[in-house]
Amino acid sequence: KIHYQDQFEERMRLPHLNDNLNVTPRQTTFFLKNRVGRLADGIDSLEEKSNYVDDNDRALLRVIKFSSPTSAGAECIDPYCNWVELWVHRAGPRKQIYFEPDSVKAAIVTCGGLCPGLNDVIRQIVFTLEVYGVKNIIGIPFGYRGFVDEELLEMPLSRDVVQNINLAGGSLLGVSRGGADVNDIVDRIQAKQISMLFILGGNGTHAGGKALHEECQRRRMKISIICVPKTIDNDILLMDKTFGFDTAVEEAQKAINSAYIEAHSAYKGIGLVKLMGRSSGFIAMHASLSSGQTDICLIPEVPFNLEGQYGVLKYLEKLMQKKGSAVICVAEGAGQELLQRSNAIDASGNAVLADIGVYLQQKIKNHFKDIGDHADIKYIDPTYMIRAVRANASDAILCTVLGQNAVHGAFAGFSGITVGICNTHYVYLPISEVIECPRLVDPDSRMWHRCLTSTGQPDFI
Ligand code: ATP
Ligand code: MG
């Protein structure tokens, strides 16, 4: 364990810190104002109450140890659930900083799909960089593509530019999938003399961030590469939650409510809502739990049959007899094994999923026709409406803390890390650990059982 802890921490350090290249840290004045304020309040030691986080400050990665073989997990399957003794660095401003703010050139890039809160994070990164005294801040347009596409121009960023961007959803910088080779990107980073790179994105983007960090280390560049996990699906390992998820659940609830109204108001109505969740059903599960209007929740982690005595279709028949209407909430990655597989991939190399919503709609329609009955199905796919909204209050706060901590992490001399919230503490984690696989809903967890209790649905197998 100790050995692993060392490796864990070693990987997060800039090469010049690992190799003792004699880069002298200097003291920051980041919290000077704060300290003077506290001094005025009668606290007499500057050192004692300075609000800095020390490099020795750690948060425990795990607080609950599941030891009995019958105990149910809290919510998700997690390959690190036995790492009960591992500690991770607390995020926050350090007294010693490893970059001269005057000479820093910082860049921000947003990759993958849209997610509520991207602008909030960009804004806080810019604010915090400026507080440290950084003057040279740029935005890379349209994801990793923006590094290499000559037609895409970098965007100078400052407090004035980003002041109100949080009032709208989307990303000020634009996003994209696919696009660029790691070596080409590092060439461009070198040519642009970027010394801090903040990368906002999901699993794919983090894999890219890790590759960039490794290539920069190989070239012995003094650059801090810090990722901020952006995944509406909440599918990043080890983190309590990722920004955008809360907002997505809130918006998804509205779609479920509309589906319920439509279904309830129609003669033998069925409302079908497809939500995001390629491999993880967190949005569908939480939206079903919070709305309380879902009769059937289908997620990728839990297989189900459509046909047969215990299938979804038979259960729908019963619901229609009993209630006269029904609401189904399905995650986009659910039931993929029932569908015709295509080998199509998107620009980033992700498999293009077959549309489970359209498939279910057809199947239900045909089933009720076959049994000589009637069903009025209303299918709602709110995906793009949800992704594009602005962050809600709780996500806006999460984005603020993550954005500020990303900058503190860079100044503290970390690289190849990502920022997150772990057991309610804000921490830095090495990228490799969090992207080993997507974080999944545990079908044996208390949370999924709560969802089943709430919907009243049986096992469909
Ligand atoms: P989302 O949650 O929206 O899917 P994502 O970050 O997973 O976000 P992707 O489109 O999968 O989105 O990837 C974003 C970027 O990361 C793309 O430009 C892609 O080329 C790059 N990328 C993905 N995987 C890797 C990898 N293994 N190595 C280097 N770059 C990668
Ligand atoms: Mg992805």
Report on the architecture of this protein:
This protein is an alpha/beta fold and 461 residues long. It is 36% helix and 16% strand. The protein contains 16 helices and 17 strands. It has a seven-stranded mixed beta sheet with strand order 8-7-6-9-10-15-16, with helices on both faces. The protein has a four-stranded parallel beta sheet with strand order 12-13-11-14, with helices on both faces. Helix 4 (118-132) packs parallel to helix 14, helix 9 (245-265) packs across helix 10 (282-291) and helix 10 (282-291) packs across helix 16 (446-455). The radius of gyration is 24 Å and the shape is elongated. It starts with a helix and ends in a 6-residue tail after the last helix. The relative contact order is 0.17. It binds adenosine-5'-triphosphate and magnesium ion (MG). Magnesium ion binds at residues 112, 202-204, 350.
Structural class: alpha/beta
Count of alpha/pi helices: 16
Cα(first) to Cα(last) distance is 41 Å
Provide the helix percentage.
Answer: 25-40%
- Which molecules other than protein and nucleic acid are bound? adenosine-5'-triphosphate, magnesium ion
Largest sheet: 7 strands, mixed
Biggest β-sheet: strands ordered side by side in the sheet:
8-7-6-9-10-15-16
Rg calculated over all Cα atoms: 24 Å
What would the principal axes of the Cα set say about the shape?
elongated
Strand percentage: 15-25%
Number of strands: 17
Instruction: Please mark out the parts with pLDDT under 50 across 5 or more consecutive residues, or reply none.
Output: 31-48
Quote the average pLDDT: 88
